[in-house]
Amino acid sequence: MKAGTFETLRIDEKVDYGYYLTNGEERVLLHKTQITDEIKVGDELDVFLLLDSEDRLSATMKKPKITEDTYEWVEVVDVLERSGAFIDIGLSKDALVADDHLPFLREVWPQAGDMLYCTLKVTNNGKLFARLGTEEVFESKFIEADRELFNKEVSGVVYRMIIAGSYIITDEGYKGFIHSSQRTLEPRLGERVTGRVIDVKEDGTMNVSLLPRKHEAIGVDAEKILAYMEDRGGAMPYWDKSDPDDIKETFDMSKGAFKRAVGNLMKYGAVYQEEGWTFKTREQDINPE
């Protein structure tokens, strides 16, 4: 018997702290904290073998979330700088994704609560480790994206990082790439992100931006001005040189705030000014793509 395997064993003896199980040749302890159902001597149990806190082979009736033959999303529960990321695999002991399997930059290591797609690895001495899914593993999970997803919002988890950017797998199973120019901060490995599809390629993969849409970036004051212009058919008798009191009365904002908001709208091509008036552009589309 060895750690990291499933075994069907018979209950051989009951003791104060649990039961001893046997395969007819060897015995292993099933501690009372590892029992999930009512059992009695003579029963046959399907158990998972692992090392206890004193590195002795033991059994558990709990089922691990991952095995050496399966991959699953598992949650990060702790991160130690000189060790790596510990993940919850459904057992009393967490498994470690070693630091040499994590990004070089410590700033983009996963944090507690992030999700990693892992399989279980058991060392020759019975220690349980977790290994991240490779690109080849993820290829079997991806589905092709349709062009109709262009400019739509998608959410997913960062599963791979390169110098040029980050790869995500979306909730639907699409493969997305976030170029370094399409983010303000580099997301962590295992971090859940939400972005906008800015391109769908012929191979069914997509490019995703984490930058805000321009109408989201212009600010609350600019939105108020746009709404006012919408109600007036796309024009208003106010511009940079309008009287501060008129601006305050109409928009409830200072002239400085008004000029900054209108400046943003002009920067994004949403409005233009002529002879004391501000007009919306004929094609009111302030999205960057």
Molecular structure report:
By secondary structure, this protein is mostly beta strands. It folds into four domains: 6-60, OB fold (Dihydrolipoamide Acetyltransferase, E2P); 72-133, OB fold (Dihydrolipoamide Acetyltransferase, E2P); 141-209, Nucleic acid-binding proteins (OB fold (Dihydrolipoamide Acetyltransferase, E2P)), CATH 2.40.50; 217-280, Winged helix-like DNA-binding domain superfamily/Winged helix DNA-binding domain (Arc Repressor Mutant, subunit A). Helix content is 15%, strand content 37%. It has five helices and 18 strands. The strands form four sheets. The protein has a five-stranded mixed beta barrel with strand order 1-2-3-5-4. The protein has a five-stranded antiparallel β-sheet with strand order 8-7-6-9-10, with no helix packed on it. A five-stranded mixed beta barrel has the order 11-12-13-15-14. Strand 6 (72-80) and strand 7 (84-87) form a beta hairpin. Helix 3 (220-231) packs across helix 5 (255-267). The chain is elongated.
| Main CATH class of the largest domain | Mainly Beta
Let me know the number of strands: 18
Number of domains: 4
Major sheet size, sense and barrel closure: 5 strands, mixed, barrel
Global structural class: mainly beta
Low-confidence stretches: 283-289
CATH architecture of the largest domain: Beta Barrel
